[in-house]
Each structure stands twice: as structure tokens, then as C-alpha cells.
User: Which sequence fits this backbone?
């Protein structure tokens, strides 16, 4: 039965009913695609593009920020280095100055000590000389009197002999007492000796 | 009862009678199944067969899947959205943008509708229990080709102006004048008859032939296996062939949907951009 119906039909001549059904079906598909599916897809594509572009922008800004921070850090580092160098130089200069000051002070001190020593030495020597001068005179006269066995009555002559002797003594002496070895331990530069 | 089942019954009937008339190849009756419902509206006869039912089911299923895919669009797509997007992008970027041209994006919804409609209906060719594509009924490809035909001519007139569009088709620029005797009829035939006709026939014939192949091999396997002579050896070969052809049919299904859409894209491209 079905075969008989088919024999008379030509597959290339479509029935009008099927054409209308096809039209309606495709029209429905078109409407849904134009009204709903395509706009949604476009919306998603747009959102995704924006998200990607936004992401790239964000990444770029972050990179710029990082670069700026690095620059700042480097600048700060350089600044700190120069500052440190300055401080070091200053400290060195100050140290030098302090050293100089100390040295000058020490020299002054040593010079003072030496001077005082010499002064004392000179005073001692003077007192010893003075004492000796009196005693030597008396001793010498006494000794001479005993040796000669006679009193040297001639005052003037006696004085002259003693003084001449003492002068001779003076002339011999000066080399020995000023040797400077006074017991001070302060270093004294050679030029000042 | 499906027409294929009827054919199967015929095959088995031959076996029952033990007749010597051999294998009865399935014929055109495959494509004229018994209507499930018949009615007449404004003098037009509508018959709802399992093929038209297949058209409804395929179309609705496709629309439901696509709508589900875009119901809650996410920037990072889920599985279904990814599948829908891939398909839509294939048409939008691969055809609307790259084939139609820079002005092609507005045609993306139309081309996508075309592609998915054909694809869904073609798929009915290998979906179990349907196993016949509505596109193997000439009416449906013809409807699509007719719509395409109207659209690309309308777009040509809109984009280039009626005078310029028809003049370029009638007198192809850059052709020596005497050649118009030959070229003009060919161009008219090409643009207004051959294009829509080939568009429709290519799709129809592929699905038609594919269905015939599958039916012949399937029924052949049943027939050969039911014979109690030497031919039983060839039964499994025929069955295997039916399975192989099913996979081949899957390729054809996608290819024909794509080819139809791409060709429509090139026609639209010709209408939007002035001829050469």
C-alpha cells in the first residue's frame, strides 16, 4: 500500500504542506536565534573581551607601579650610600682632628713637664752650687791653711783665689747637668729636644 | 510503525513465503511513511508523518540546548555553554566574519540559525528510532535554499543598489563585449537558478542517499542472516558495513550543514562586495 503511494510520488516535487511546515519551523529558529541566542553570545564575547583587555591594562599598570617602586628604591639606596660616605668622611675628618688635638695637647704637656723638670733641675743645681760655693770656699781655705800650716790673712788675695777656682769649676760644669733625662715618659719629638 | 520496519516486515515476509523472488530493495516508500495525522487547512493538506515529527523534535531539542547554553552566560563558560559557544563561534567567526567579510557579523545569527537547524535535522539520520533526516525530504532544504535565495538577492540590492547589482550580474565587468553572448546567460542562470537549486539539492541528495545506504545495508544484513544458505556468511559483513556507513553518515551530517552555511556565506559576500 505504502509502496504504491510512493511509486506515484516524485521526491523532487515537495508537497505544499511540508514547505509550510518547514517555513514555520525555520522561522521559529530564526526568531529564537535573533532575539535570544545571538545577543547573549555577543554579550558574552564582549564581556570576555573587556575582561581580557581590563586584565591586560591592570597588569600593565601593576608593572609600571613595580617599576616606579624599583626606581624609588634605587634612588633611596643611592641616597643612603652617599649619605653614608659623607658620614664616613666626616667621621674620619673628625677623628683626624681629635688626633691632632690630642697630639698637640700631649706635646704641650710633655713640653711643660720637660720645662718644669729643667726648671727644677736648674733650681736644684743652683742651690747645690750656692751651697757648694760657700762650703768649698771654707773647705778649701781650711784645707789650704792646714796644708800650708799658716793662716792666710790676706783677705783680698784669699777671695781672689777662691773665686778664680770656682769660675774654673763653672767653666767645666755646664755639659753634664742639662742632659734632660728627668724621668718623664711622655714622648717628645726629637726636634724639641 | 516506521517505514523501515515495514520494509523489514516485507523482507521477513519474503523469508516466510520462502519465495524465490529474493531480496526486495527498499525504495522510495522509505520517504513516504504513513501519516500519523492528516488535516487540511485553507485547502492545503498537512500530513504529520514521523519525518515531520522528527523535524519538530530535532528543532525543539536544538533550540532547547542552545537556550540552555546561553541562559546564564558566564565569562568562563561551563561545559554546555562552551559547546554552544564553540558552534556559534565557528559560524560567527569562521563564516560570518571570514567568509562574508567585515560587514558579515550582522548575518551571524541568520547563518548560525541555518547551520544549527540543518545540523540538528541531519543528526536525525543516525539517531536511533528516528533514523531518517527531515532534510532527505526535498521540501525542507528547498525552503532553506529559497530563503537564502531571497536574502542574498535582497542584500545585493540593498548594499549595491538594484541597478548596479543586476547590471553587474548581467554584464560581468571586465569581460570583452562579444563574450556577453555567452557569459550573460550563464551568469543569470548561475545567480538566479543554479545557486539555490544546487544548495537545496546538495543537502537533500546527500541525506537521501545516506539514508538509502543505511537502509540497504541494514535490511540486507537481516535478509542475508535469515537465509539458510551460503549467504549467511555475508550477513555480518553487511551489518558491519551498516555501522561503518553510520559513522560516514555522521561526517556527512556535519559537512553538509557546514557546506550549506559556507556557500550561503560566499553568496552573501558576493552581494555585499561589488563583483570583482
Assistant:
Amino acid at each position: 500500500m505504502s509502496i504504491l503511494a510512493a511509486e506515484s510520488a516524485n521526491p523532487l516535487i515537495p508537497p505544499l504542506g511540508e514547505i509550510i511546515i518547514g517555513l514555520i519551523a525555520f522561522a521559529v529558529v530564526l526568531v529564537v536565534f535573533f532575539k535570544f541566542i545571538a545577543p547573549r553570545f555577543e554579550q558574552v564575547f564582549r564581556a570576555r573581551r573587556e575582561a581580557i583587555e581590563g586584565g591586560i591594562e591592570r597588569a600593565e599598570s601593576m608593572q609600571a607601579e613595580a617599576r616606579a617602586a624599583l626606581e624609588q628604591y634605587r634612588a633611596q639606596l643611592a641616597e643612603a650610600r652617599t649619605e653614608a660616605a659623607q658620614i664616613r668622611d666626616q667621621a674620619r675628618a673628625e677623628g683626624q682632628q681629635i688626633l691632632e688635638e690630642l697630639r698637640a695637647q700631649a706635646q704641650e704637656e710633655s713640653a711643660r713637664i720637660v720645662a718644669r723638670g729643667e726648671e727644677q733641675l736648674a733650681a736644684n743645681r743652683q742651690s747645690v752650687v750656692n751651697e757648694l760655693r760657700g762650703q768649698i770656699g771654707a773647705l778649701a781655705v781650711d784645707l789650704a791653711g792646714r796644708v800650708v800650716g799658716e793662716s792666710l790673712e790676706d783677705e783680698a788675695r784669699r777671695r781672689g783665689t777662691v773665686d778664680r777656682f770656682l769660675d774654673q769649676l763653672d767653666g767645666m760644669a755646664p755639659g753634664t747637668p742639662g742632659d734632660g733625662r728627668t724621668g718623664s715618659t711622655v714622648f717628645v719629638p726629637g726636634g724639641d729636644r | 510503525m516506521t517505514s523501515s520496519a515495514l520494509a523489514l516486515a516485507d523482507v521477513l515476509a519474503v523469508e516466510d513465503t520462502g519465495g524465490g523472488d529474493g531480496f526486495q530493495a527498499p525504495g522510495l516508500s522509505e520517504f513516504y511513511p504513513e501519516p500519523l495525522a492528516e488535516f487540511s487547512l485553507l485547502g492545503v493538506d498537512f500530513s504529520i508523518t514521523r519525518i515531520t515529527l522528527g523535524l519538530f523534535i530535532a528543532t525543539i531539542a536544538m533550540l532547547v540546548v542552545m537556550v540552555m547554553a546561553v541562559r546564564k552566560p558566564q565569562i568562563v563558560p561551563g561545559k554546555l555553554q562552551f559547546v554552544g559557544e564553540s558552534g556559534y563561534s565557528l559560524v560567527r567567526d569562521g563564516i560570518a566574519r571570514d567568509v562574508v567579510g567585515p560587514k558579515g557579523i550582522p548575518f551571524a545569527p541568520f547563518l548560525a540559525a541555518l547551520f544549527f537547524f540543518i545540523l540538528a535535522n541531519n543528526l536525525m539520520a543516525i539517531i536511533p528510532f528516528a533514523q531518517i533526516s527531515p532534510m532527505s525530504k526535498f521540501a525542507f532544504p528547498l525552503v532553506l535554499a529559497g530563503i537564502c535565495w531571497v536574502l542574498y538577492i535582497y542584500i545585493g540590492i540593498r548594499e549595491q543598489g538594484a541597478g548596479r547589482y543586476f547590471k553587474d550580474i548581467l554584464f560581468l565587468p571586465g569581460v570583452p563585449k562579444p563574450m556577453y553572448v555567452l557569459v550573460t546567460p550563464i551568469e543569470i542562470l548561475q545567480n538566479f537558478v543554479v545557486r539555490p537549486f544546487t544548495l537545496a539539492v546538495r543537502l537533500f541528495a546527500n541525506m537521501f542517499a545516506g539514508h538509502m545506504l543505511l537502509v540497504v545495508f541494514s535490511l540486507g544484513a537481516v535478509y542475508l542472516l535469515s537465509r539458510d544458505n551460503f549467504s549467511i556468511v555475508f550477513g555480518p559483513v553487511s551489518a558491519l558495513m551498516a555501522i561503518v556507513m553510520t559513522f560516514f553518515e555522521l561526517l556527512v551530517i556535519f559537512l553538509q550543514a557546514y557546506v550549506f552555511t559556507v556557500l550561503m556565506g560566499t553568496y552573501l559576500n558576493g552581494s555585499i562586495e561589488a563583483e570583482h
